[in-house]
Amino acid sequence: MVASNRAGKPHPGTPSLSADRTSPGPGESSSASTTLASNTNGDARRVASSTATPQQEAETETAEEQSQINPERILQAELVGRAEEIVTMQHAYKQVRDGQRKTVFISGEPGIGKTRLAREFTRWSEETQQATVLWGYCYEMSGSFPYQPIADAISAHVRMSSPAELRAMLGNSAIDLAKIAPEVRFKLPELPQPEPIGPELERRNLYSAVAHFFNALAEQRPLIIILDDLQWADAATMQLLNFLMMQSTGLSPFDPVIEAGKRSAVPLYLMLYRADEVNATHPLRGLMGTLARVNISEDVRLQRLTEAEVHQLLVNIAGHSVRPIFAGEIFRQTEGNPFFIGEAIRTLLLEGKIKKRGERWQATVDIDQLELPPSVRLLIERRLVHLSPECRTTMTLAAVLGRQFSSALLYLARNLSEDAVAEHIDDAIQAQILSLFSDPSKVDSRARAQDLDLAFTHDKIREVLYQWLNPLRRRSLHSQVAMAIETRYATHLQPYYSTLAYHYQIAENPTRAVDYLMKAAAHAGSVYAFVNAAEHMKAALDLLISDEERPRRAELLHRLSDIYIYTGRPDKAIEAGLASAALWRDLGSDVKQAEAYLHVSFCCHWQGKEIDAVKHIQRALKCIENRPEQIALLARVNAQWGLAATVMGEPLLAREKLQQADILHSSVGGADAFIAVVSLWSLSWCAFLTESPGQMLAYALRGAQVCSTSHKPEWEPMMDYS
Questions:
Q1: Among the three residues 246, 271, 301, which one is the final residue of a domain in this structure?
Q2: Does residue 22 sit within a domain?
Q3: Largest CA distance in the chain
Q4: With b meaning 16 or more CB within 10 Å and e meaning fewer, what string describes 629-653?
């Protein structure tokens, strides 16, 4: 973009950043190179001949002078324009230290400085308050496992703790915490496996274990938990956050007893998200509304920098005074977005349009020749061109790996020598394309020295690299990455199931993608992330489109129907169940069709649609009317019919059906726990309807016993209620 003259502004022929001179002197060339700074007395310091061209100056500049340019100042420059936001966060911190719950939401457009603001605040909290800071990240691409940002925050601390410290702090809650943070079991291998007590109770215990972990850390030292890019958070994370934000101190079964008059310490949560990617229906909006209603949240919305603030930022970057004309042009072309400003300065440095002489920066071209592109993307592209082609190829592969990635995984996927890839990484770090994600001094001792976590300095850089890929190259690289993950983590792939599914989907390998989607769904279900499990199953269904895959599709629809019950969506459960029944009908499987209809009937009970439930039972009965060998299935038909009749207040019909179910069930061994529990629950309420409370209690107790001995604890609350 070419700058234009504006009335009242100095002539663009003097690209000095100091405020001393506004136009060239008589006989001076407007293209002469001038300093960007001034002495404190305002006298201009001309360092080159007025007739020297920028090209001549560049040719005579020494390597020593070039090496003095330190791009790190762009990242390390003192924050500007955020004083009010820092005060708000410090006030929230003090409230939390007084025992109040508080969450700060920080929002803004990409590149506005959300993460930088959080880091500035944590620097203050660590240096002056001795606080512990834990970070967790959400990712747009490369898949994620349930609760990933929270699990990352937990794992970061666990890796730095000794087994003795963990035992003392976690107690029995370690068993539940290990379900989402495998590092806990790595540090405490003697932990027993969890006892099955039912999904709802197990999920509650998991949530309480996470709350206990964070509260225990907060008791030791002030604790700040920062979750970045929450616009990409999964459903399970949002549910757990809702629990953590709203939990009442001391209600967790693992919380220590609090002395009278003493307030329990709680963490301060900082939640960062891109405002333009969180619409009215996003789960984060619901959480924000809930916290606002109970007055335990602060909303910090970052705005672009003003022209004066851009000027001050440039002064902070340069380390000396900066001419207003230069600052004004940078402001005009970047519109005050801090990331855009940083990219603009980096590009000008790389292209030699700004150089350093001694302790001062100077422009080598006129202001109207800066020619900055009109978008961040084009700026980044111009900067990436300065990397070698081989380094750019490595960075493109890194972009496929994601915002954060392992250096060892990059070595493996790149298929070059480790030294060659390491050199590319060094070049990218020097160019501020990549950064070390964690302090190398804090790397866990079991991690190899060459296996460090790396991250793109901003996700926009990764996005640009990724968008460079044509479809064929993109597909190939995703396949390379998937195979590298399978090789690197062959003995512990579980945390990478959804990541592998994602890569194989983009690689257009549906067979492998479906395999990993189903594994990811099973894993999500095992940690009570049922919404995540449903999403994985739906993604798998989208890939099962051939005629040969119809049986697998029908089975998957049945499983999806089960999952929908756990997510509180009986309407979707019925829809998926009916789709499964229709597929089995087309495939000519009467037995599978009957099973699907019985499942739909049970879903109808959750909505109180007993008439519909009976209709589906009758459809199931019709499917097996010519299959006398299906005794167990017929027993289930009668048991569910008895259940429907009980709920409809028809005890005589209910007893008739339940008696028939008992006879049939007994004839095949009586080992079906579902038939037993449904029958006993129905008989219990039939006894209630006929005013036999003693019998009601007896049936309910028998049902509870069946639940505990058959490992079907999810039905036990039904019996306890009876």
A1: 301
A2: no
A3: 113
A4: ebebbbbbbbbbbbbbbbeeebbee
- What is the extent of the structural domain holding 491? 483-543
305 backbone dihedrals φ, ψ, rounded to 5°: -75, 145
306 assigned to some structural domain = no
Q: Examine residue 694 and state whether it is found in any structural domain, yes or no.
A: yes
Identify the bridge partners of residue 102 per DSSP, sorted by sequence position: 268
What H or E segment, with its residue span, contains residue 160? none
Q: What is the CATH number of the domain that holds 162?
A: 3.40.50.300
Whole-number average pLDDT of the chain? 84
Distance CA 383, CA 434 (A): 13
The residue type found at 558 is H
Residue 430 backbone phi and psi in degrees, to 5: -60, -35
Residue 666 predicted with pLDDT over 90: yes
Global pTM reads 0.80
Q: Cα separation of 508 and 518, whole Å?
A: 17
Which of 271, 301, 331 is at the close of a domain?
301
Determine the pLDDT at residue 31.
36
- Do residues 460 and 380 lie in contact, with contact meaning Cβ atoms separated by under 8 Å? yes
Angle (nearest 5°) at CA 173 between 169 and 178:
100
Cα 152 to chain centroid distance, Å, stands at 10
3-state helix/strand/coil string of 479-524: HHHHHHHHHHCCCCCHHHHHHHHHHHHHCCCHHHHHHHHHHHHHHH
Which pLDDT value is given to residue 398?
A: 97
Residue 273 lies in a domain: yes
Higher pLDDT, 135 or 48: 135
CB atoms within 10 A of CB 571: 12
pLDDT tens profile 374-420: 788 888 998 899 999 999 999 999 999 999 999 999 999 998 999 99
What is the C-alpha to C-alpha distance for residues 138 and 230, in angstroms, rounded to an integer? 6
The tally of domains found in the chain comes to 5
